[in-house]
Amino acid sequence: MRIDILTLFPEMFESILNTAIFKRADERDLVEVIVRNIRDYTHDKHRTVDDYPYGGGAGMVLKPEPIFEAVEAILNETDKRFHNTEEVQIILLTPQGRKFSQEIAAELSQRNHLILICGHYEGVDERVREYLVNDEISIGDYVLSGGETAAMVVADAIVRLIPDVLGSAESHVEESHNSGLLEYPQYTRPPDFRGWEVPEILLSGNHGEIAKWRREQAIFRTASRRPDLLKRAELTSEEKQQAEGLHKPSD
Ligand code: 6GU
């Protein structure tokens, strides 16, 4: 997979690209991430990327030309088969987009090529939305100063789903076993920390009982904290009854 990130603040991505997951994905040639400065696609002396909104109002709006030129430069330098817009997902990060989720991460992890455009200031010229991008994503119902942190969230969630990116130590086995449920509680040494003890069952060595306890804990945790997730969780009918007893239907 190739991921191009268009931003006015490329240096913000340095730390995340140096984390283990991204470095491993790069070393194994599974993902190539290229961060580009939108300002590099301007032609005037002041390298202008924004301008006043037509019709007045507060704040500045990102101009369309540098963003269009940056995307066109990427499309021109990549393999011809990527030119079909169906094959390149051109995503604008914006609070107005569809709300990001694990399902969308899984969908995007199947693509060959993503272009993530980080919006800034008060907004982006509407023609970028109408004639350039084919997807818009928000990471939640709150306002961020810019799309950069959202792009990092999206890229992280996607890259870790690409086969062979995760080591066996971080594998998805547990995640998929408990699909749709929150994680069970985890403990490490010491067994007694300030008088707070690790549940005895985890020290028992009885793997069957431990698996059963973890499953119950995951269901209990989901029922009490995120009952909305239970509707879509993969539960046996017995587990469903158990979960229903744990939260009020009004939740
Ligand atoms: Cl993608 N951008 C901004 N600026 N704010 C957000 C967001 C994106 N997602 C949630 N809030």
Descriptive overview:
With 251 residues, the protein is of the alpha/beta class. It starts with a strand and ends in a 7-residue tail after the last helix. Strands 2-1-6-5-8 form a five-stranded parallel beta sheet. The protein contains ten helices and ten strands. The protein has two domains: 2-159, SPOUT methyltransferase, trefoil knot domain (Alpha/beta knot), CATH 3.40.1280.10; 192-245, Trp Operon Repressor, Chain A. Helices cover 35% and strands 18% of the residues. The chain binds 6-chloroguanine. 6-chloroguanine binds next to β5.
Helix content bin: 25-40%
**What is the third-level CATH name, the topology of the largest domain?**
Alpha/beta knot
Write the H/E string, N to C.
Answer: EHHEEEHEHEEHEHHEEHHH
* Bound molecule types: 6-chloroguanine
How many strands, what sense, and barrel or not for the largest sheet? Answer: 5 strands, parallel
